[in-house]
Amino acid sequence: MTSTSHTPRRPSAAAGRVDQAQMRAANMALILRHLRAHGGRSRARLAAETGLSKATMSSLISDLAERGLVREGQLHRAGTVGRPGLTVELDGRRVCGLGIEINVDYVALAAVDLSGTVIRESSTPVDVPRLPVDAVLDRVATLVNRMLDSIREAGLIVAGLTVSPPGVIDYAAGSVRFAPNLGWRNVPIVAELADRIGPDVPPIHLENDAKLGAVAEYAAWAPEGVSDLLYLSGDVGVGAGIIAEGRLIRGWSGFSGEVGHLPLDPEGRQCGCGRTGCWETIVGLSALLRLAAPEDDEVQDPTRPLEDRLHTLHTRADAGDERTLAALRQITDDLARGLSVLVDVLNPEVIVLGGYFAFFGDYLLEPLGAALAERRMDEGSGARLVVSRLGISSTARGGAIVALEDVFDNPTLIDTH
Amino acid sequence: MTSTSHTPRRPSAAAGRVDQAQMRAANMALILRHLRAHGGRSRARLAAETGLSKATMSSLISDLAERGLVREGQLHRAGTVGRPGLTVELDGRRVCGLGIEINVDYVALAAVDLSGTVIRESSTPVDVPRLPVDAVLDRVATLVNRMLDSIREAGLIVAGLTVSPPGVIDYAAGSVRFAPNLGWRNVPIVAELADRIGPDVPPIHLENDAKLGAVAEYAAWAPEGVSDLLYLSGDVGVGAGIIAEGRLIRGWSGFSGEVGHLPLDPEGRQCGCGRTGCWETIVGLSALLRLAAPEDDEVQDPTRPLEDRLHTLHTRADAGDERTLAALRQITDDLARGLSVLVDVLNPEVIVLGGYFAFFGDYLLEPLGAALAERRMDEGSGARLVVSRLGISSTARGGAIVALEDVFDNPTLIDTH
């Protein structure tokens, strides 16, 4: 079974009559999400906090344990009085999600288990623009199957896959509508990958890289109490992932965060999307390379790995190379302009810079922070600016987390042992 | 008791140990919100849909009914089989919220009951910029007390007030930090109004006009299945209220939607906020008046009621006056640029134009829609553009709805009869 839908997140309780099994599943989901949000706790406390009776709680916990989704662990003492009890906690040993990022020059995979632990990660150079679509999909399927085998051999169930393709997603059709940097058009990627992965393919979702980056970063920031976060991906394309009050804001048709195409270039350069003056034409990776070096410079050579080229540029900046430094200053100014728009619209508490922005964080963060502070409307409206610490894996990790959502919505998707 | 806080929306169940009374209150809140979202239904269905036992449900419904928050009404038949049962529904007869908008030249009030019905509305011309702050607050308190008296005489409890002041809110302090169009600075409006309204003052919240406009518009659109909506207020200032997946997005410190100050004017005019090039300097009401008529024209006379001046302009446009039409075309172009930014960032399904934009909807909607369609990234990402049908009362109505949120979060705030 494959699926591209993200919609049926909420149990359909409200829609009509609910039978006993649906009600049970919805309450199991409630327990699972409560444990994820607040950590392990006793049955008694879970019952009190969720409003379910102790008898119901007991039965649901047994059911969840039989499915391998929770376990009873350490003794704990609730407060200062009463006898110590067993803590119920998420069990990461049985179920995981898999995220797959197809980027311009690599394919990254990550598997995250139910308790949020990253259990597998890989990144493989793939020269996507120079390969036929079929060859790319073959390669991706091979990588996925290799990881699926390794995870399944270790005894885990893969609840779902989330693929992040490098282009505009048609969520309803499960396809990539177009990918300007790759020349892809109307690639039915879900069906094609499902065919190649074979009969045991888990449900496949599609989601864009910036949204998945935001999900992965949010997983790291939520424990610190942050609930409004903006993630900015920095590649040839630039996109934003928006977390508001702890939830990913997808927009009504999944097109939120298309900030790379904000009209912010007064010179109105042509963009791959068909518009002119798009923000990514002045702050995307191509803009940095163009500003920092002549066309025949080694950093512009697409056959060299991107990381090496960025390293070269960083070394030049460290050595005081004026053209590189001027390029970074220009990028900073243009980044500040767009970030200031996003701050005005969204008022995030934390802005996480990803992609190549993170790589040049030591040059960008301070002047960007100063520029944003200067434009701040009110002392209470400033955002904290940081760089991603997840690096290249953030999209794939976010994909793995999103792939687990189905289980958090309906734990009965996972059969008992 | 007064309060400016909007934070404790969610029952604090998760924070620690929860006693019986808190759990009961949380479950009563669950029932109340369920009835609001999905309409009246039988006890049996409510029990099935919320996961609460029938015995618990019965006890909670009785409790809610004693507080006058729900009632059992019409017979209904669930599906085609089984005996008909009584429908439990929200009871609007006992509790309402009150919204108060202090604008530049009027004060509007609206009361909305628990079932969503508008039970009182008023709008009073007040020349706010020419009056001392104290005199304005006296006037507002008099208007509020008059409405409070009338509502209480009718036997209703006013659960809370939401005030929308015409300036930047300091949520924590309950004050208006500054209101450039009025010359107000650091006005502790919650405390001042509470003093004036007297000992029976309900809790007072503060919220900005665009956010409240969005809440009011959303109440009208939600029944049609819309969950992602953007409301654009159009006055001297311009602001956005964002509803995403059915929830008001406030930003981490309440400063989301400050779109009037997006840097969208290439000529960089000075704005009241201290920045230059702000969007509202080219699409706000002052821009329309400046573009449409010379300084000594009657439409620029601040002593004439705004509605009359807008009527004059509209009549000129209808008569084919070239300057007025050119002004509207210019506003359309500049509005399209900013709306396109908001569409790229937020991907709303519906954009509701409020304030003077709504007044000129017959001139703005069609060309704006065409301009947005032209910039659309993807056929699936377009937004539906409409004008507000709530008119001047949308902010006050939204305030009344927000003032009721405390009851939906904790129904035990309302005592039994």
UniProtKB/TrEMBL annotation, chains A, B:
Question: Which branch of life, at top level?
Answer: Bacteria
* Entry-linked SUPFAM superfamilies: Actin-like ATPase domain, Winged helix' DNA-binding domain
- Identify the Pfam families for this entry: MarR_2, ROK
Q: Which residues form the HTH marR-type domain?
A: 30-71
Bilayer-crossing residues are: none
Family, according to the entry, reads as follows: Belongs to the ROK (NagC/XylR) family.
Q: Write down what this protein is called.
A: ROK family protein
